[in-house]
């Protein structure tokens, strides 16, 4: 295996509606914070990895050119990695491979999105070719299709699923209240969630992530550099990535193979055999509360078909056996391209004890996750406090 | 750090294809797998390079491209931008000892979208450069004028690049443009963006290139003549054209790191063949200077001397280069593929008439070469 | 804008009206993307374009490297420092390089022929990209001859200003 | 020096880019079938799966799928979604729609997203939840005038 890799610094913008800044300035806000956090200068960096959702989102093609100065990549190599919603995980993986290969010692990873500059749903529909997977809808439709498939497959009672989804939403929003950078910061009750307006039945308003602007930067370093520079690095314990067929009907989205296989790979690399017991915190990509239920199963955190039971008994709530999305998750903040990298950054904050008000006490091992595509891709990164 | 060997390549030709993008991509990928006798799921990892959404109309292009690339349920990623980055990414998991084999695919169908200038207008920032008409061709034309002015390079010398590359392309079955042109033909072609003439600009092509990389041990098992990855370098320039000296690009930085990693001290002597990315003819001359094949401002003399001809001491673009074949995103991987074939001695009719030990592949995209990348391969 | 595309409600897609691809001999599917954007200028560029509306060209100076850059920047691309000092620049400068656009492509910003140039305004440490005009551009040979004699240019302002880059109509030879 | 007059502005614009994709022989034939009210799939000789829409190759086995089969026009709903919101490009008269994944009899995958449930007043959401269920049986209803595209199947009708 290659060299050990660690996160030595992270930076996030204040997420939300950022009409106050141009897009390059938004990117710079995150980059500056990451350098300050790591205590290094751009001179120390060997290269940069950047990613966002398809640039049609904001109408600037290959926007890494536009951001070259903000990314501090001038005079350095840059990789542009993009895998749709899982971009945030994929950019991290590019950097991890890069450092592990020995071809770089310190790599800056940046991901961003400024969704208020375009029409997110209309852009999202351009994922599909124009003649075979045509539909009206966008992301909420794709994911309500998936949630219903999951409920149908396991014959999950609608009311029970509703209750569990409400708990996921309430917990996430409580997390958002504890995270000063989160976009949505409101106190919700289960009733607020279950009685909110319907978006695509059964999905209601608070089951759905917001449209956010935001950027995230994470600095990765080799073992040698990390030990020299950083008092408390977050070590990369394992990664996994899988993608399935383009056509949505080709494989089950209830038993989501790409999540299952990607997490298995990451667990194997991290030496984890019982993820529910061994992990201390999980940053699960949850743009839709119902979807998180399905993820909890496919990530192997509870038996298939039993996520609602586990959620209802509090396993994944604050103070539970494995708190999920203490940062508020994607439900409270979704600058899409950046959302997967924010999960990595949050996992790093947790295992280094730097998460502030949303710190999970004594967290040593954290999972971060993102998914994307036409319900196709899943990426996982596991970070730990010890090498 | 493990050695990385290139086992096999497959390319599609550049002419317009009636196949769907899915069918079109499948062929070269399947061809590479069949050549080495591997099954899709036996490959350890896949790295795709597919287009920026503006070049395909489909965002998250990896979604549609996944099936034909063979990446179903395999560790994988996708690079956006130039496919030479997917090649370098493909080397990484092998170097770290995590994978034995990696399949790299670069793909695009240029016939399915609008003019390159329509699309690259969107690379410009929306408030300032885009409204005043900056795109790749206008940016390159301004770079060319500066080149002619500062170093006294002549338009004839730039035209000679087209003559050389298109004549090389006549012998490359994968090239898109097949026609013999003279210096006069080039000089008399339409002055579309003065000083650039129509024949000095690359076409839009279709192109899928698939390449199998392997660890040293595995590569030796899979082929009797692996080609080795020796080094790479890449560098990004600042965004606004007005902030840069357009004749002092980041290619120098990229080349310096590639040479350092490959242990090359005298590129002109040590490199046997170079494939450069020259969507505009004069750029081949400028890139040759920045790659250290001649002194600054001597690019014109270099082409006059015949050194870069296919029969010369340091042939540049024996494949015909990008002027003959321009599958936008995949073109960087095509440069690497040609370098591989030349080292293997399998380039066919345009195989160099000498032993090729060290080859250079270069790619660039963005205005006036904002991003530059160099890969060195060796026997 | 609306007349430039139509919505095919049945097939759930848009078609750009003023563009056709070359005739194909095989079956195809058009899928044009038409998407709305709403870009944030941020404070720096808002102020820069407000300046143009008043007939003034503003740059910003980096307190570290002392360079004056135009258009104004939030931060210095090389030093990464905030650029908070605003400087009004002279409206004259010299031509660094230029090209004469004499062909058409879809989405072009204006009817050819036109000249795009890099103009180094006096006092500025970078070039400004803009049109060069104010003389007859119809004969490329004459343009080439004329441009050989031109080195200095001066901003010509649009009659109607909208606080965008077109508030400068073009730069004309001095 | 210009005083800052107002808060940072935004600039509205429209991005317009044309594309034309080749359907390729496989999907050309698939849609030709639609004109004749036939739904065609392809069968993988290796894994034996029949996939709809027809494919040039099996995404898992990676072998060409050259055997064409006409499949049933009845199937079972795997999942569905009720879409009742608009975004750029979708006007209120285009909604609601009920997108569904349908597993056709004898086919080894679900349909993509192009299959829509209809044939009754789908504006009545109560009625929708009563009629449309995972596991419900459906049947294709063709348009009278067919043009060789996904709209040739007007909707999928619930079989009571």
Defining key terms:
heterotetramer, A: 387 residues, alpha/beta, Peroxisomal Thiolase, Chain A, domain 1, nine-stranded mixed beta sheet, two-stranded antiparallel sheet, 11 strands, D: 160 residues, mainly beta, five-stranded mixed barrel, three-stranded antiparallel beta sheet
Helical content of chain A stands at: 25-40%
> What's the shape of chain A?
globular
The end-to-end span of chain C amounts to 37 Å
The top-level CATH class of the largest domain in chain A is Alpha Beta
| Strands of chain C, total number | 12
Specify the helix fraction band of chain C. Answer: 10-25%
CATH architecture of the largest domain in chain A: 3-Layer(aba) Sandwich
Largest sheet strand order of chain A? 3-2-4-7-1-8-11-10-9
Q: Helical region count of chain A? A: 13
Strand content of chain A: 15-25%
Q: Might you state the CATH topology name of the largest domain in chain A? A: Peroxisomal Thiolase, Chain A, domain 1
| Strand arrangement in the largest pleated sheet of chain C | 10-9-8-11-12
Distance between the termini of chain A: 14 Å
Major sheet of chain A: 9 strands, mixed
Which structural class matches the secondary elements of chain A? Answer: alpha/beta
Question: What ranges of chain C have pLDDT less than 50 throughout 5 or more consecutive residues?
Answer: none
DSSP summary: helix tally of chain C:
2
SS class of chain C: mainly beta
Compute the number of structural domains of chain C. 1
Rg of chain C, Å, rounded: 21 Å
Q: Could you characterize what this model shows?
A:
The complex is a heterotetramer of chains A (387), B (379), C (174) and D (160). Chain A has helices at 23-38, 63-66, 87-100, 120-124, 139-154, 158-177, 190-194, 223-229, 257-270, 275-278, 289-298, 307-312, 336-351; strands spanning 5-12, 47-52, 78-80, 106-114, 198-200, 203-204, 213-222, 234-243, 281-283, 365-372, 377-384. With 387 residues, chain A is α/β, with parallel strands linked by helices. Chain A folds into two domains: 5-120 and 212-229, 3-Layer(aba) Sandwich (Peroxisomal Thiolase, Chain A, domain 1); 136-211 and 234-384, Peroxisomal Thiolase, Chain A, domain 1 (3-Layer(aba) Sandwich). With 174 residues, chain C is mostly beta strands. Chain C has one domain (42-173). Helices cover 13% and strands 38% of the residues of chain C. In chain C, strand 5 (57-61) and strand 6 form a beta hairpin. The model of chain C has no long low-confidence stretch (mean pLDDT 95). Chain D has helices spanning 24-35, 125-131, and strands at 10-17, 20-22, 40-43, 50-51, 67-70, 74-83, 97-104, 116-118, 137-142, 153-158. In chain D, the strands form two sheets. Chain D has a five-stranded mixed β-barrel. Chain D has a three-stranded antiparallel β-sheet with strand order 4-3-5. In chain D, a hairpin with a 6-residue loop joins strand 3 (40-43) and strand 4. Chains in contact: A-B, A-C, A-D, B-C, B-D, C-D. Chains A and B meet through helix 2, strand 3, helix 3, strand 8 and helix 9 of A and helix 2, strand 3, helix 3, strand 7 and helix 9 of B.
């Amino acid at each position: 295996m290659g060299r050990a890799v660690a996160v030595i610094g992270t930076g996030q913008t204040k997420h939300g509606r950022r009409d106050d800044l141009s897009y390059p300035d938004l990117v710079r806000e995150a980059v500056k914070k990451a350098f300050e956090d790591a205590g290094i200068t751009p001179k120390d960096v060997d290269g940069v990895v950047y990613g966002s959702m398809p640039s049609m989102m904001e109408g600037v093609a290959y926007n890494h050119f536009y951001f070259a100065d903000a990314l501090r990549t001038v005079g350095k190599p840059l990789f542009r990695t993009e895998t749709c919603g899982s971009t945030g995980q994929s950019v991290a993986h590019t950097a991890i491979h890069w450092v592990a290969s020995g071809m770089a010692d310190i790599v800056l990873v940046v991901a961003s999105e400024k969704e208020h500059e375009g029409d997110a749903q209309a852009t999202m529909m351009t994922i599909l070719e124009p003649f075979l997977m045509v539909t009206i809808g966008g992301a909420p439709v794709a994911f309500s299709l998936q949630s219903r498939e999951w409920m149908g497959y396991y014959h999950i009672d609608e009311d029970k699923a509703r209750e569990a989804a409400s708990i996921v939403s309430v917990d996430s929003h409580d997390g958002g209240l504890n995270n000063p950078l989160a976009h949505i910061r409101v106190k919700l009750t289960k009733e607020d969630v279950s009685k909110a307006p319907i978006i695509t039945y059964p999905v209601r308003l608070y089951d759905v992530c917001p449209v956010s602007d935001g950027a995230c930067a994470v600095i990765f370093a080799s073992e040698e550099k990390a030990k020299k520079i950083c008092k408390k690095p977050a070590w990369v314990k394992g990664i996994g990535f899988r993608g399935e067929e383009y056509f949505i009907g080709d494989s089950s989205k209830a038993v989501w193979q790409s999540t299952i296989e990607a997490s298995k790979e990451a667990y194997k690399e991290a030496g984890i055999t019982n993820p529910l017991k061994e992990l201390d915190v999980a940053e699960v990509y949850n743009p839709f509360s119902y979807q998180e239920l399905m993820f909890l199963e496919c990530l192997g955190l509870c038996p298939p078909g039993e996520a609602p039971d586990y959620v209802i008994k509090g396993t994944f709530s604050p103070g539970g056996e494995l708190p999920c999305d203490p940062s508020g998750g994607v439900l409270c903040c979704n600058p899409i391209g950046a959302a997967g990298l924010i999960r990595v950054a949050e996992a790093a904050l947790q295992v280094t004890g730097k998460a502030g008000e949303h710190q999970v006490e004594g967290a040593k091992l954290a999972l971060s996750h993102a998914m994307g595509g036409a319900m196709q891709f899943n990426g996982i990164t596991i970070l730990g406090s010890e090498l | 750090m493990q050695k990385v060997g290139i086992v096999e390549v497959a390319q599609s030709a550049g002419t317009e294809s009636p196949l769907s993008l899915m069918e079109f991509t499948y062929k070269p990928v399947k061809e590479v797998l069949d050549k080495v006798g591997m099954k899709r799921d036996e490959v350890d990892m896949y790295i795709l390079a597919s287009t920026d959404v503006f070049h395909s109309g489909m965002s998250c292009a990896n979604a549609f491209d996944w099936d034909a690339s063979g990446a179903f349920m395999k560790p994988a990623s996708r690079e956006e931008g130039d496919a030479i980055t997917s090649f370098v990414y493909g080397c990484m998991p092998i170097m770290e000892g995590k994978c034995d084999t990696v399949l790299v695919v670069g793909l695009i169908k240029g016939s399915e979208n609008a003019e390159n200038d329509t699309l690259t207008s969107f690379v410009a920032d929306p408030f300032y450069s885009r409204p005043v008409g900056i795109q790749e061709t206008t940016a390159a034309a301004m770079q060319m004028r500066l080149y002619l002015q500062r170093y006294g390079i002549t338009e004839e010398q730039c035209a000679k690049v087209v003559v050389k590359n298109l004549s090389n392309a006549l012998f490359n079955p994968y090239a898109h443009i097949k026609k013999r042109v003279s210096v006069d033909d080039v000089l008399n072609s339409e002055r579309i963006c003065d000083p650039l003439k129509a024949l000095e600009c690359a076409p839009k092509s279709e192109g899928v290139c698939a390449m199998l990389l392997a660890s040293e041990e595995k590569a030796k098992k899979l082929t009797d003549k692996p080609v080795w990855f020796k080094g790479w370098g890449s560098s990004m320039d600042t965004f606004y054209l007005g902030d840069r000296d357009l004749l002092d690009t980041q290619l120098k930085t990229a080349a310096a790191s590639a040479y350092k990693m490959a242990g090359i001290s005298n590129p002109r002597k040590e490199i046997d063949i170079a494939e450069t990315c020259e969507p505009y003819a004069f750029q081949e001359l400028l890139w040759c200077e920045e790659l250290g094949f001649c002194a600054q401002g001597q690019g014109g003399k270099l082409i006059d001397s015949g050194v870069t001809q296919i029969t010369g001491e340091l042939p540049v673009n024996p494949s015909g280069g990008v002027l003959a074949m321009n599958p936008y995103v995949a073109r960087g991987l095509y440069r690497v593929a040609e370098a591989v074939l030349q080292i293997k001695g399998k380039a066919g009719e345009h195989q160099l008439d000498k032993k090729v030990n060290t080859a250079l592949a270069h790619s660039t995209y963005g205005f006036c070469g904002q991003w530059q990348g160099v890969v060195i391969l060796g026997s | 804008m609306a007349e430039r595309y139509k919505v095919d409600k049945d097939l759930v897609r848009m078609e750009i009206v003023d563009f056709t691809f070359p005739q194909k001999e095989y079956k195809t599917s058009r899928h044009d993307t038409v998407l709305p954007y709403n870009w944030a200028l941020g404070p720096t560029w808002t102020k820069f374009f407000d300046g143009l509306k008043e007939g003034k060209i503003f740059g910003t100076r980096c307190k570290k490297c002392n360079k004056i850059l135009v258009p104004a920047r939030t931060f210095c691309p090389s030093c990464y420092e905030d650029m908070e000092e605003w400087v009004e620049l002279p409206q004259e400068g010299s031509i660094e390089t230029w090209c004469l656009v004499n062909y058409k492509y879809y989405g072009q910003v204006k009817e050819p022929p036109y000249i795009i140039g890099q103009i180094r305004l006096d006092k500025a440490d970078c070039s400004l990209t803009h049109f060069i005009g104010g003389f007859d551009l119809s004969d490329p040979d004459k343009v080439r001859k004329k441009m050989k004699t031109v080195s200095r240019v001066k901003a010509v302002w649009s009659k109607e200003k909208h606080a965008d880059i077109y508030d400068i109509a073009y730069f004309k030879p001095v | 020096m210009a005083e800052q007059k107002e808060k940072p502005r935004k600039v509205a614009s429209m991005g317009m880019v044309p594309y034309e994709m080749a359907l390729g022989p496989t999907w050309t034939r698939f849609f030709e079938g639609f004109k004749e009210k036939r739904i065609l799939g392809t069968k993988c000789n290796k894994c034996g799966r029949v996939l709809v829409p027809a494919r040039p190759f099996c995404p898992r086995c990676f072998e060409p799928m050259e055997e064409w089969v006409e499949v049933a026009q009845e199937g079972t709903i795997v999942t569905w979604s009720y879409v009742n919101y608009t975004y750029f490009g979708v006007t209120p008269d285009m909604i609601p729609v009920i997108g569904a994944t349908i597993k056709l009899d004898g086919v080894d995958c679900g349909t993509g997203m192009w299959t829509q449930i209809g044939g009754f007043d789908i504006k009545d959401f109560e009625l929708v939840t009563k009629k449309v269920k995972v596991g419900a049986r459906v049947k294709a209803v063709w348009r009278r005038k067919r043009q060789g595209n996904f709209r040739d199947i007007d909707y999928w009708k619930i079989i009571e």
